[in-house]
What we know:
By secondary structure, the protein is α/β, with parallel strands linked by helices. The chain has 12 helices and 16 strands.
Amino acid sequence: MxxxxxxxxxxxxxxxAAAAPRPNVVVIVADDLxxxxxxxxxxxxxxxxxxxxxxxxGTRFTSGYVSHSFCSPTRAGLMxxxxxxxxxxxxxxxxxxxxxxxxxxxxxITIADLMTKAGYATGFVGKWHLGAAAPFHPLDRGFQEMYGxxxxxxxxxxxxxxxxxxxTVPLMRNRETVKETEYLTTAFGREAAAFVGRHKGHxxxxxxxxxxxxxxxxxxxxxxxxxxxxxxxxxxxxGAMIAVMDDAIGRVLGxxxxxxxxxxxxxxFLSDNGGPTSVTHCRNDPLKGAKGQTYxxxxxxxxxxxxxxxxxxxxxxxxxxxxxxxxxxxxALAGVELPKDRPIDGVNLMPFLLGEAKGAPHEVLFWRQNGxxxxxxxxxxxxxxxxQNGTAVEHYDLAKDIGEAAPLGDTxxxxxxxxxxxxxxxxxxxxxxKWQSPGSGKKKAAEGKRK
Length: 451
């Protein structure tokens, strides 16, 4: 049914596509969103009407992955279209505004660099988390406009944005600090919608990276009150944060309609990793695991693409795709070439989504953390998880066991050997992490302490 829907839509849209101007591209990223906590994945206690309509208007990736199971490495992969382990960005950078060694390496080419080269207006709104020192600033990584913060997290309430630590520093507009008066998620929706309005007459690329619903659990009282039916207090506040984020996304989608560019804008939405179930009481059903793990619950995320009039509506796509694919897809639509001096691991998804390319976008996908383990590899429906370095290999058939409940036995030994060989060949191309995570104790500074 999926293939038939895509094929019929492709036939009807090909002529229009040939004459269409270059599309705008909007990438929206949630932070620590549970797999089961959106309506289009069956959630009933947290309202996400705008995201649900977005999903209904386009393609939902039921095997949509990110390239890492926590924040900054995923963002580094999305920004470059490359496995972040190729350039040592394998752990979260500490908030070190004076350390030019901890952040997305300067030699990496970003999606914003390429979209600017194509003549697009480029804007970033939200959470950066790719280095706090001057050389890592969004305006030095291809973006022409910026509103947000550089660290890995932030207070949401404006009265708390008065400190010098990572979570309390004031917001920034471009290179200047500003006083924000609105709830942070609402402010990000406002700024993103304003960016659309400013650039509606010219192709634009917008990267809207919410820090919601990442901790701290803070939401407007009115939003919390609307979810009084959720008995669990943590989940109630977490749900309110998602609902406000959904409203902010609705504001951006409304700006696209008001600007008359909705039908010429490709919108991606995804989470940066799986939900931290024990922290926010989010849900990753039916997946096993959570943020920080290479089980499906840490790396398979809500992921969709919508482009009315170009992509077919109401379609599910079950072949594995990954956040690395966003860069090559956007760059191909913008009409510029990918860098030829380095491997680009993502692929242009459009031919697959339109039925113009057969097969799967990826033969195999990989994950690696901490320089060695845990790691995982997926090839077809086969997945191998190395939970600890050199021990505890677990093999699953995801077509039959999406919840990774029952590891396969020795009868699948040949398949395990093949998966290990694929991983080892990929792993040989990588480098060691360039820094340790802030919690490791190896990279601490007084200026970088979290509040």
